[in-house]
Fold this protein.
Amino acid sequence: MTSLLSVRDLTVDYRATGLIMPRRPLRAVDRVSLTVSRGETLALVGESGSGKSTVARSILRLQPVTAGTVEFDGHPVLELDRRTLRGLRRRMQIVLQDPSSALNPRMRVGAAVAEGLEIHRLGVPSERPARVAQLLGEVGLDPALADAYPHQLSGGQRQRVVIARALAVGPELLVLDEPVSALDVSVQAQVLSLILELQQRRQLAYLLVAHDLAVVRQVAHRIAVMYLGRIVETGPTDAVLTAPAHPYTRMLIAAAPDPDHVEGRPGGSPLRAAAPDPDEGPPGGSPLPLGVSGEGAGATRPAKGCLFQPRCPHPGLDLRCASESPALRPLGATLAACHHADSTTS
Ligand SMILES: Nc1ncnc2c1ncn2[C@@H]1O[C@H](COP(=O)(O)OP(=O)(O)OP(=O)(O)O)[C@@H](O)[C@H]1O
Ligand code: SF4
Ligand SMILES: [Mg+2]
């Protein structure tokens, strides 16, 4: 199956300015490659500061990229002129963590949802109120809320409005950057169910940035685990979460709280639909832990060798780890970047 989104060797440096001496740029994303097909969810997971949002923003060309390519439905996103990019942006929408900051507090809900239709000159103006009502209904909101202001809604309702606004322009890819993590735990499951329903109804492709493994387990077909800007492990969700090969993935899973002790979460079996390509689909799996937190932004970055080396608990850690950067290679049902992962014991 051809991928809708294909990212190759994406690299992003942030310029860092020191007070006295100029500092070296920070490599926030380092040669990241990934693909997402129609109807598929790829989750990007990793500690805070691992580069997940930078990948997400780069794909939509919301920030400068140092190197690499991004192809959307065959179009080279990073090379397009402004006009062509505007047309393509309609097909790729982003939903961020905090719905309040995504909505203008002085704009009524209906106007916020209709804005994209106006910008992209979609449909006839006289038909927009009916279209807005239909979109609000599709995200589970009463169409009468079109007259409300964002502050009159709950957090979950506001995120539904943000999703309706994204859907208004008929996207094929949604980049979801922590879409439920700012919501009350009891509301998270409802918004996740909506996200899944919409995927099935519209065959949407999702790039989901999440730090919560419970969310990922429920909705993602595949996972890419990031550490200090690199993908260190990737594969079908159940393979990565039940038989992780990389020591860092193992550490994330071990640090996650027990799902049975978190209220209101969509525990139990995954809610996601079967993967679009049966050959790449997730195998069956056992219950998995929830949640990931960490201090990736403060993690020590060695000058050479494996980036995970200062924190790696692997008994086989050796001089090669200190000198040679490991490339992704097949290990069991996943790809992992570790020189010694095949000899790792759980
Ligand atoms: N605009 C910026 N200027 C300079 N450095 C930045 C900028 N944005 C992000 N960074 C740095 O780039 C790295 C990756 O940040 P990014 O926000 O992509 O991580 P993340 O995985 O999304 O983290 P989180 O889970 O906290 O959202 C971090 O070290 C961060 O401090
Ligand atoms: S390459 Fe070495 S340091 Fe890196 S994760 Fe594997 S064992 Fe650990
Ligand atoms: Mg982020």
The first strand starts at residue 5 and ends at 14. The CA atoms of residues 301 and 307 lie 6 Å apart.
